[in-house]
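Homework help board

Subject: predicted structure for assignment chain

Our instructor gave us this sequence and asked us to write out the predicted structure in token form, then describe one feature. I got the tokens but I'm not sure how to describe them. Can anyone check?
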Amino acid sequence: MSDHADGPAPLSPRVPDLPSLELLVSVARLGSIGRAAAAHGISQPSASHRVRTMERLAGVALVTRSPRGSRLTPAGTLLVEWAGAVVDAARVLDAGIDALRERRDERLRIAASLTIAEYLLPGWLVALRRDRPGTAVSLRVENSTQVERAILDGDADLGFVEGPGPVRGLRSAGVGGDELVLVVAPGHRWTRRRTPLAPAELAATPLICREEGSGTRAALADALRDQGDPAPPLLELASTTAVKAAVAAGDGAAVLSSLAVAEDVTAGRLARVPVDGADLRRSLRAVWRSGPRPTGPAGDLLTLAARAAAARR
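My token output:
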């Protein structure tokens, strides 16, 4: 059995690079290395160096120089005929890549944590729709840990999370702030307190909370990290709506985003309990894979979110 690799062989090291081939085609068309250099935006010495490099790679003279200009040798003429097909194919490839990028820029895959998806993202998407009406947007709503994983796995172009800093492999930018608040049912004993709750008492109280990986839960743990191990949860539920319903129906308490409970507190369905001595503020962040800041629809949405955050301050 012969020992050979499947597929075409790699290009020979004698093949010049594409910019050099384009330059040689221009020399043939314009009759001068100087005019070809100007057409390609490079200096004449640089153009001459490229021609000499091609001649060294090919092992034959390609251009004859004279005071009246430059003309191709028979070998140079033959090489230009071959190079023309290569240059044309490269232009077709370039146009195809542009088309792929345009189609990519017509869609936007977003992953967002529950609080941001429910209370902030709708307004941002309405504004994006006005600016880019042809963009198809898909949204997956998950906890912050799952959002970060979706970005790392390439399943989303842009993510929005709550809680402590980003994970390795991600870049982030702030898109506003939020505050966690302690809420109970209107008849709860804490509504009759005359002093705010201390962080140690909050940490020692079993709470109704979101599942592990939730940005809200992570932010609360970060705020109470100096209080020792927190009490085990009273209940773990998969949505903020379920947490609020459980608090309103029973004797439990929860720490949730101020965005999520504002209407419930105003309507009297939940009561807010002051907490003194713990910093319950947190940042809301956009995240993307390490590299340049997003462009296209993802970049536009990031800008819109930052502007909306500035307007809320």
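Reply (TA_rk): Your tokens look well-formed. For the description, you could write something like this. Residues 223 and 279 are 6 Å apart (CA to CA). That's the kind of observation they're looking for.
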